[in-house]
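dumping these here so i dont lose them again. two proteins, back to back, each one seq then structure tokens. dont judge the mess
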Amino acid sequence: CHSQGKASGELYVRIVVAARRALSLQSRDSVRLNDNMIAIGLGWDLLAGVSAVDLDASCVCFSQSGEVMMEESVYFAQLQSASRAIRHTGDEKEGDEDLGQGDDEIVLVNLGAVPAQVAALFFVATVATEGRSFCEVDTARMRLVEWKSGIERCRFNIAQQGKKHTALFMAR
């Protein structure tokens, strides 16, 4: 676009920043959600000199009678639920793909589309590398984010809680 004259004037910029601190989730804590679309992110960074450790994020669905509903659950080998309400973005095998900045695996959930027969959703982090545990990971965290607003509602520091475990529940 060519201008006939030179633009002049003043430009005023106003920026509003609202700092929000995510809850650091402890056992038996709860958090209220304002959005039907949520994301569970799993991120991890390896200890210096340690070979790759594969962590996996999963969402396991349960019926009212306590039975696992595999068709609605998602994990590294089943990336979408039958209802399409829950989706896994894919398996990351080494962590730290984003240089420690965020989530290596993400599970997206449209809570409004989850079938009525699903009574509970369990979000789980597991160590998929045989013979390894969370103690071989420098940092590991799962976080719950309201998808539309991007607000992180809670964070669970797995490496601090996990120690020699190979699986931990983040949220129900």
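---- next one ----
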Amino acid sequence: MSDNKRKSGRPREVSDEKLKEMALSIKHKYRGKKLSYKFLESETGIGRHTWKRRIGYYIDELNKPVILPSNETLEDVYLPNIEELFERHKNNKEKIVNELYHFEQMFRKLLQELSTLKKKVASLEELPDLVERQKEELKLVSKSAEHYESSYKNLVITSGFSHLREEKGIKDNLLEFHSKSNQHITLNDNEFKEMFSHVNKKSKEKSIQGLSKEFPNLFNDE
């Protein structure tokens, strides 16, 4: 039989052990990446159905990390069970390294999260000082507001006097009144008397008492 006929025949079948070695090598190459049948097909040219049918159980095993059974194990945190690790992979260094890579990645992630949490804690510890600084700034702003309010009122009142306007360099009278009295806010006579009725009554009685002492003859009853 010619070489061309041999080459055009059915491709030589890869053994299960060879498939396992290839899968493990790819797992190690991509630093613990989860293996899918489609991904294995793209890497090797061997159909995804072949991977699933021949060594599907082994692929599942590679994708499942070794965990330490414990009621206190935190969610999504895997702890290496060294005894089970070596029992499963015996003396296969490449397989053991591949499994331990999961834990290396996990610890790196935890260290990054720890660093982020430390920064957040440091920021929280600075909050009391920040609040105190803002309180002091608020006091200064309040004092400034009071100062400007007082200055404004003084300026408005001063503008009502021509001699003071010239002295303070004020051009116009800021207190403008309309010529029509009905445009001002006023109290009518009854409202005014009602507001001060108790004051006027007391003043009147006090005045009469004073006059009666000074001029008793004027208040003698006949």
